[in-house]
Design goal:
Blueprint lengths: L13 H10 L2 H12 L10 E9 L3 E8 L2 E8 L12 E3 L4 E5 L9 H4 L2 H11 L1 H4 L4 E13 L3 E12 L2 E12 L2 H15 L2 H4 L8 E5 L4 E4 L5 E2 L16 H18 L11 H15 L4 H13 L4 H4 L7 E3 L8 E3 L4 E3 L6 E3 L2 H22 L3 H25 L4 H24 L5 H14 L6
Antiparallel strand pairs: 1-2, 2-3, 3-5, 4-5, 6-7, 7-8, 8-10, 9-10, 11-13, 12-15, 13-14
Helix pairs in contact: 8-13, 9-10, 9-14, 10-15, 12-13, 12-14, 12-15, 14-15
Length: 456
């Protein structure tokens, strides 16, 4: 096996970042990981690619690899890190990296059960009343992971075969395993409360039906939503196209009303999402980034330090606290016959509804930046960016009209859009510090702030 020999680093800065860069080289990591996870094929190298990454400079870095048919976690721990390592973790000594199979994630104790058909069948027999009371017979169940965040959550599709009255039928449920019982319980309870709200009963917003909560596994089960993902209608922005699909535009406008229905539903939860704490984290992370790239980190830090200056304006602009989705964007929306479905309520909590709208707006701004950078400012790319900016404005107008929140909401939404771009810039920097995207997002954030009334 060929490998790159590297002395392990124990301090933050350029040395640890060099290890992260090596860990992002999928060819090198294929050399390291194949003999550990496919020892039955000596001399054969399995294809390796990166699915996810979380990097806190000087503290830890966790990468999720797709290694052939398996998912593998690799983690560096130089300082403060979240959670424990499983007993099965193995060390790649030249890198100082611990690696283990994703199903052994110690933060998700429900994962091994969910992926074991007999054990998951037993869990469903207890959790679902239609099987407990004998109305239907649960024959078999098999889970397929769809999306996984190491140490946080795993979304799975459960394909179930059942029998009723002698006839066999196939059923699909979706489940999510969480790393905290309290969070799983909150998501379950909040979705049930929303399901009983006028916003859902009236059809202004659609939710996936909640099927069950398995507290011992920290898994929430939901039924499927039949419809078309909104993001599918916004994927044709490439080549010579100068505008997106009209169905995408219309779907985005419809989603504004769905979000307004959630924010004015009157539903409340005990989970809070205070913005001041996140702003402090921005400063910390931007300061850490400067240890890797002094110039780029300085630009990140400048925006992070500037954002809090507008906090005093939020109240005069009509700041309020409602139930929010917490991570809303067009990729969380489905277009159904009944209305717009909003999915993935993991980050639900109490905050200014402008946080949701700012995040949604920032997604379009990010798409426009990507278009410009990818096409190097071609006329078609510029036209697509302009179309996306017009969609931003139309979405915001539609939301304000549907919510009735007034003129001050425009300022709050734009400030939160700058906040969301800061968040995106930090995430992009942690994945690819040399990419132009993080600093393009920082510049877009400054452009938004410059259009706001001056900070106090």
């Amino acid at each position: 096996m060929q490998s790159v020999q590297v002395e392990p680093a124990t301090s933050p800065g350029a040395d640890t970042h060099r290890l992260v860069q090596i860990a992002q080289n999928t060819q090198t990591m294929g050399h390291y990981l194949t003999p550990l996870f496919f020892p039955e094929h000596p001399g054969h190298e399995v294809e390796c690619r990166i699915l996810d990454m979380k990097y806190e400079v000087g503290e830890y870095c966790t990468l999720l690899y797709q290694l052939g048919r398996r998912m593998v976690i690799g983690t560096f721990r130089w300082g403060e890190a979240e959670g424990d390592l499983p007993a099965s973790a193995r060390l790649i000594e030249p890198l100082g990296m611990q690696v283990y199979s994703f199903e052994q994630d110690p933060a998700l104790p429900g994962l091994p059960v969910a992926l074991d058909p007999p054990r998951m069948r037993a869990a469903l027999l207890d959790a679902l009343p239609e099987y407990r009371d004998g109305a239907r017979e649960l024959v078999s169940v098999r889970a397929r992971p769809l999306r996984y965040r190491p140490g946080k959550r795993c979304t799975m599709r459960f394909d179930i075969w059942e029998r009723a009255g002698g006839a066999y039928a196939r059923r699909t449920l979706y489940g999510k395993a969480y790393h905290q019982l309290g969070k799983a319980a909150s998501v379950f309870n909040e979705m049930r409360m929303l399901a009983e709200s006028e916003a859902v009963r009236s059809g202004r917003v659609v939710l996936a039906p909640v099927a069950a909560f398995l507290p011992e596994l920290m898994i929430v089960l939901q039924g499927p939503v039949e419809g078309e993902p909104l993001e599918l209608f916004l994927e044709g922005l490439q080549g010579s196209a100068t505008a997106g699909d009209q169905r995408g535009w219309d779907g985005v406008i419809r989603s504004a009303d769905a979000l307004a229905a959630v924010h004015t539903s009157g539903v409340a939860t005990d989970r809070e999402r205070p913005i001041d704490k996140e702003l402090k984290r921005f400063v910390k992370r931007a300061s850490q980034a400067a240890a890797v790239d002094e110039a780029g980190g300085a630009k990140l830090l400048a925006l992070a330090n500037a954002l809090p200056a507008w906090l005093g304006h939020l109240a005069p602009w009509g700041e309020q606290i409602t139930l929010v989705h917490g991570d809303c964007k067009h990729s969380q929306c489905m277009l159904t016959e009944a209305g717009v479905a909003i999915l993935d309520w993991d980050h639900c909590g109490m905050a200014d509804p402008a946080t949701d709208i700012g995040t949604y707006l920032a997604t379009f701004r990010q798409m426009g930046l990507h278009q410009t950078l990818k096409s190097r400012g071609s006329p078609a790319a510029v036209a697509r960016s302009q179309w996306l900016r017009a969609l931003e404005d139309a979405f915001l107008d539609a939301y304000v009209a549907a919510s009735g929140f007034g003129e001050g909401f425009y300022y709050r939404a734009r400030w939160y859009e700058a906040v969301a771009l800061m968040r995106k810039a930090l995430r992009a920097f942690s994945r690819a510090p040399k990419s132009p995207m993080p600093l393009a997002q920082v510049e877009a954030g400054w452009n938004i702030l410059h259009d706001l009334p001056p900070a106090a």
